[in-house]
Design brief:
The protein is an alpha+beta fold and 704 residues long. The protein folds into three domains: 5-269, Immunoglobulin-like (Sandwich); 287-481, C8orf32 fold; 487-703, Jelly Rolls (Sandwich), CATH 2.60.120.1130. It is built from 15 helices and 35 strands. An eight-stranded mixed beta sheet has the order 5-4-8-2-1-10-13-12, with helices on one face. Strands 26-27-25-24-30-34-33-32 form an eight-stranded mixed beta sheet. Strands 21-20-19-22-23 form a five-stranded antiparallel beta sheet. Strand 15 and strand 16 (279-281) form a beta hairpin. It starts with a helix and ends with a strand. Residues 13-37 have low confidence and may be disordered.
Length: 704
């Protein structure tokens, strides 16, 4: 799907003039044989070549060539390399947040898959051609510049005759034009590490010497050589025994792994500073914000000029109905709180797939949908611009990165292209309130953000930064750090009365879940609307009754105790299980599997771990089960009592027979550290292993 930067720059200039270290963890020290035995495959050699031809935006061509030799060791390795999907990403750590139906993914407009060849050497030494079937997979993704679906392609190459023990050699090439993919190709990262050991790795990047390219080398990722040949600048990297650690659980690779940040600056990005002859490059952030905030200026002008269309009159009516009873609000906080929290809690969300498909491409009709109590995808930000200005509050747009994958900077700004941003709203006393427009039926309250936006540095952008023709486009970075929660702010308390009938062999659960802070932010939407954040640990998306597939839910309700920090909520549930009890001769067992779903990574392995560990947030999570039997029982075997206090946190597991008909089981897990150094990861493993054992355990008892 064609999107052209030359066209965008033309529009941008018209609007602008008319409107107001750490070194690579690799090398000779590692035992490659040991790591090979542990992996599903080992990359014997990987050569990457990125060739950039041309210097004018309309004619710049990106060509990617990879030659790879990989030994297949396991069934998982076979599944991974018998199916190769192009284009691939050089930044596997990237996480974007957006409404799911926008379907942002790693694709390019008008990509050309030029070649794909392979050979296979069996473990007996016989060489044969790889039998390859290719299939174009169409991808439908919203295009930023016009907000409609565009059609893109991925190519899947299936290698039919690959087997475990084989050595596969593939070489492939694909290419795309910069002008049609400037959003994706103007700022991106390249990591050397992948998810498998690379015994030998090379990267070559070359471009026209007259094309301005910025490269930032992070954590000593400097090239091994740089040279000029035939009027082209060439950068070359060669690394040996590069660890496959990019996907280590709980890691933040950008904080320690070497990588480079790559930015292209074609000469079309040059503009003349007002009232001078000086030329500078347009900061690319301004092009991204111009596209993302295209409607904001028109809305601002209409409101400031007192325009009263049908849509604006409905917005006025809504604000009046929501705020008419508010008094003494000199700062504007109470109006902001009421308006936003009402939308977050009570409004439906329209994913606008009909609009994206052009089935109904009428304008947004913000006032009409506001009256319907529906927030549309296409106007989820525009509506807030109108609301904020109409209640006379100043705002900045706040662009930020998921803290698990990076930070916004002058060099790295790709998340500004397709990931959600926030509003940083100034009250009358200049205090900042954060507002994250909902992207599903579930919404976050005012000043509520998920942990991956906490303590992040956000880039604040104002319309005047790049739309005032009398001033240069702002190149300074106006940053603000979002608040960070503490251990005492984040808490989940799971309390359950379990009535066990030994006559009917059933267990009836009556549970209460108290949620605070991040636990409320991440979990309450699951119970309210089955909302799941697919970027976080899957255990957050597991309801308490999901012990096994045969549980019957009898009742569930959610109470929001307070819509301000720490957003306390209470979940009450009732459910029954008929398959947890089993008779063994003169004893009975009670299966405790999945009763204690603390947020952990199962089978957490530190054997060859390379990166530090970062828990999602600090907090306390506890389970208490009071098991009431209908007959006297005698506990024979139970879970292991545990009391751990280490660099990662605290874990207390306890079991007690309270009386002849009652047993109390409890587990309390507190995360204390915000980072665990790689040489202390035994602390994480110790706690996680004990939780995993608990969550797979049984109680064994006999009748008295």
């Amino acid at each position: 799907m064609k999107t052209n930067i030359v066209y965008l720059l033309l529009i941008f200039f018209v609007s602008h003039t008319l409107v107001f270290g750490n070194e690579l963890i690799d090398g000779d020290a590692i035992n490659t044989t040991e790591q090979t035995k542990r992996g599903d495959a080992v990359i014997i050699n990987e050569d990457n070549v990125i060739t950039i031809v041309g210097r004018k935006a309309a004619f710049i061509n990106f060509s990617v060539t990879k030659k790879m030799k990989v030994e297949i060791l396991t069934q998982a390795g076979l599944e991974k390399y018998s199916k190769i999907v192009l284009p691939e990403t050089f930044d596997p750590t990237y996480i974007a947040h957006f409404p799911l139906d926008r379907n942002y993914t790693n694709v390019f407009s008008n990509i050309k898959f030029n070649s794909f060849k392979g050979t296979i050497t069996t473990k007996e030494g016989k060489q044969t051609d790889a039998f390859i079937k290719s299939k174009i997979e169409p991808v439908r993704m919203v295009m930023l510049y016009d907000n409609f679906y565009g059609n893109f392609d991925k190519n899947t190459y299936q290698i039919e005759n690959l087997k475990i023990g084989d050595v596969l050699e593939v070489v492939y090439n694909y290419s795309m034009m910069y002008a049609e993919n400037y959003n994706q190709l103007s700022s991106f990262r390249i990591f050397f590490n992948g998810d498998l050991l690379k015994q030998n790795y090379t990267l070559t990047i070359s471009h026209d010497e007259n094309l301005n390219i910025d490269m930032e080398y992070v954590h000593e990722a400097n090239p091994d050589s740089t040279y000029n040949i035939d009027n082209r600048i060439v950068y070359y990297w060669n690394k040996c025994n590069v660890y496959g650690c990019i996907n280590e659980e709980g890691s933040r690779p950008y904080r320690s792994l070497p990588h480079l940040i790559f930015s292209v600056k074609p000469y079309e990005l040059l503009y003349t500073i007002p009232y001078s002859f000086e030329e500078r490059y347009i900061p690319f952030y301004s092009l991204f914000t111009y596209q993302r905030e295209m409607n904001h200026l028109g809305i601002a002008k209409s409101i400031l000029q007192g325009v009263n269309t049908k849509q604006y009159l409905q917005i006025n009516k809504y604000i009046q109905s929501e705020t008419q009873d508010i008094t003494g609000d000199s700062l504007g906080y109470l109006k902001l709180l009421k308006i936003h929290n009402t939308i977050a809690e009570n409004f439906d969300f329209d994913n606008d797939t009909g609009y994206f498909k052009k089935d109904d491409n009428r304008e947004a009709r913000m006032g009409e949908y506001l009256s319907r109590k529906t927030l549309r995808d296409i106007s989820r930000y525009d509506l807030y611009v109108a609301l904020l200005l109409k209640i006379d509050l100043v705002y900045f747009t706040a662009y930020l990165c998921d803290n698990r994958m990076g930070e916004i900077s002058n060099a790295y700004f790709y998340p500004m292209y397709n990931s959600d941003y926030l509003f940083a709203v100034l009250l009358k006393n200049n205090s900042v309130q954060y507002l994250y427009p909902k992207k599903s039926r579930f919404g976050y309250y005012l000043n509520e953000v998920p942990f991956y936006f906490e303590d992040t540095k956000a880039r604040l952008v104002h319309l005047d930064d790049y739309r005032n023709y009398k001033k240069p486009i702002s190149e300074s970075t106006r940053k603000i750090t979002l608040p960070n929660s503490t251990v005492k702010d984040n808490m989940r308390r799971n309390s359950a009365l379990v009535d066990v009938s030994l006559e009917q062999m059933t267990a009836h659960f009556t549970t209460k879940i108290n949620l605070y802070g991040q636990y409320s932010t991440l979990i309450r939407g699951l119970y309210q609307y089955n909302y799941q954040d697919e970027t976080i640990n899957e255990l957050y998306n597991k309801k308490i009754w999901e012990i096994n597939d045969e549980v019957v839910v009898l009742n569930q309700d959610t109470e929001i105790v307070n819509k301000e920090f720490p957003f306390p909520a209470v979940i009450n549930t009732e459910y029954i299980a008929n398959n947890l009890l089993e008779t063994h001769s003169d004893t009975i067992s009670l299966n405790l599997a999945n009763w204690f779903n603390h947020i952990i990574y199962t089978d957490f392995d530190t054997t060859r771990r390379q990166l530090d560990f970062y828990p999602d947030f600090r907090g306390k999570d506890s389970y208490v089960y009071f098991i009431q039997f209908d007959k006297n029982v005698h506990l024979i075997s139970s879970v292991k009592k545990v009391k751990i206090n280490n660099a990662f946190g605290e874990l207390i597991i306890d079991v007690e027979q309270v009386n002849p008909t009652a047993i109390k089981l409890s587990s309390s897990f507190k995360t204390i550290g915000s980072k665990v150094e790689v040489n202390q990861l035994y602390a994480v493993q110790e706690i996680y292993n004990n939780i995993q054992t608990l969550n797979q355990s049984y109680l064994l008892f006999k009748l008295d």
